[in-house]
Amino acid sequence: MNETKEEIKSGYISSINGTLIEIKGLEDQVRLHDLVRESKHKILGEVIQIYSDHVIAKVFENTFNLKLNEEVLSLQEPLSMELGPGLLGKIFDGIQRPLEATFLKSGGGGFLERGADIPSLSRKKNWSFKPLRKIDDFVSTGYVIGVVQETQLIEHKIIVPVGVFGKITYIAEEGEYTVIDEIYRLKRGSKEKSFNMIQKWPITKHRPYKERDYPQEPLVTGMRVIDLLFPIVKGGTVAVPGGFGTGKTVIQQSLAKWCNADVVVYIGCGERGNEIADVLKQFSEITDPKTGHSLLERIVIIANTSNMPVSAREASIFSGVTIGEYYRDMGYDVAVLADSTSRWAESLREISGLLEEMPAEEGYPAYLPSKISSFYERAGIVNLYGDEDLGKENYGSLTIIGSVSPPSGDFSEPVTSTTKRFVQAFWALDANLAYSKHYPAINWLNSYSKYPESISDWWYERDIYWPEIDIDWYECRKQINYILSQENELKNIVQLVGEENLPENQQFILFIARITRNSFLIQNAFDSIDCFTGIKKLIGFVKLILLLFNEGKQLINQGFLIEEIKELKVVNDILRIGRSVPNDDFKRLEKLRTKLINEIETLKLLHGVFKKK
Ligand code: ADP
């Protein structure tokens, strides 16, 4: 945990109610959200209510064994994150205590000893610091003082903390330093202050930036259904609601592994301990295809598992965002993945119940919407402080993807419906799809994304040119959406009259919709090729389906039988593209295109011999 300021004022426990303690004697010593520490067991709490004769604090650890009259100290500061080199590749609990050893050893059930006060960042590890400034330089918030190669994937920029400015009077030479060694000194007027590599930031306050920018670049996820139909942008917000077993965790893990963010913060909130230990194991085993380094080198994991006290769930959510903002401020694209925000909302409900607050819908507190919005509103692509120094604008982004676990998959329940108000994209997971093993089980009829317009130019610049199907990403998604919506409209008629009694052109749409669903939308997260689809393969793949659709439509109009098109050999190839064509093998897709065109030409040549009329 963080080193705290002088522990000065003390009070005593006057009542204990679950994870809440009532303290007397600190009423005029603490501010809302200040930390307190019970002296005997050294457990931490946060002040959540202040009255004239007592304060109420929620305790981040088990209150078992606590007794009345035990001493409580005010730490005179809110819960803050310790920010500096050494966060990447680490796993922390909700209040940023490093978990690794105990956690892994016990397969995710490992608790830290109650009251354990371990520094978040190692005080012993040496980092190679390289100064980028010299004495007498003037620096202010966001300026880069120097760099540390935190992992082989990420260069950690030591930036001037928020609200600080001055002239450099000392800067460390290139060499090895711990996070608590002095790195630079700044002079402002007659005052001089020394800085090391650590900075602290309260978790509930967003880190400031110059201004927000408009998102224009997608966060490429490698999941075809998302990247084509329900895209997300760097700096965007998404909710992933779904009942138990619909694939929320697998989606979040795939994102952590493959999305094109520089840094990923993975928050396991209220999920099973063994699942999170599993995540950690997977991340450490997988290597980044581009660099060959362990993916863990770009990931920070915050774990507040279901067997840890609920009161730290909220802290884990905001700790994750704060760490994300810190890397954003270095100019990185950061993705914060929270699984699951419902467990956090449940902890709010539990604490609100203990406080005997007036419940709103389904027992959740009336402030649920403001809590949820305060999480998602920290996402965005922003213009950072410090850019005047670089002579160019400096941007960083924070994308937030939160999964929601509605009981029995009912999306009208308060957490899902409230979250929907604050996010710009919604990937609705469907139990029926999951049951029929259609993964990712994102329902293409209930899901949406408000981002396609803002990223269509980005895709346009990366389009592949095939004269036979000269349409861009935006037009591709429009056509696929059309095919899927037509299938949905025809569903009822098919039930009444049977598919074989529909006109040929409608049967053909159903055929293409089936190909789209079974080959393009289904994607196996555990297959070494299918787990990730790069942008070139995505466009090539969808264009092949649409080429078959457009050419096939013409053949049907000319009187060909739908069976003749179904029997084209290339249809089988298209169905297997996901698992058989590696991302870097674009030639295979070009060959399939040629094959499709040739097979259709051959059919046309046979026209008149095997034709219907
Ligand atoms: P949830 O978190 O919603 O309870 P999980 O993410 O744990 O659900 O998924 C449940 C199971 O579904 C997984 O263990 C896996 O077998 C299967 N699954 C989910 N998504 C995929 C996918 N994309 N590819 C293959 N299997 C999947």
CATH class of the largest domain: Alpha Beta
Shape call: globular
Distance between the termini: 80 Å
Q: What is the averaged pLDDT score?
A: 90
Number of helix segments? 18
Major beta sheet, specifics?
A: 10 strands, mixed
This entry's quaternary arrangement is single chain
Overall domain count: 4
Tell me what portion of residues adopts beta-strand conformation: 15-25%
CATH second-level architecture of the largest domain: 3-Layer(aba) Sandwich
How many strands in all? 26
Polypeptide structure, described:
The chain has 613 residues and is an alpha+beta fold. The chain has four domains: 69 residues, Thrombin, subunit H, CATH 2.40.10; 241 residues, Rossmann fold, CATH 3.40.50; 71 residues, OB fold (Dihydrolipoamide Acetyltransferase, E2P), CATH 2.40.50.100; 145 residues, Orthogonal Bundle (Bovine Mitochondrial F1-ATPase, ATP Synthase Beta Chain, Chain D, domain3). 33% of the residues lie in helices and 22% in strands. The chain has 18 helices and 26 strands. A hairpin with a 4-residue loop joins strand 4 and strand 5. Helix 7 crosses helix 9 and helix 12 crosses helix 13. The radius of gyration is 28 Å and the shape is globular. The protein starts with 9 loop residues before the first strand and ends in an 8-residue tail after the last helix. The N terminus is likely disordered. The chain binds adenosine-5'-diphosphate. The site of adenosine-5'-diphosphate (ADP) has 14 residues, from helix 3. Adenosine-5'-diphosphate binds next to helix 3.
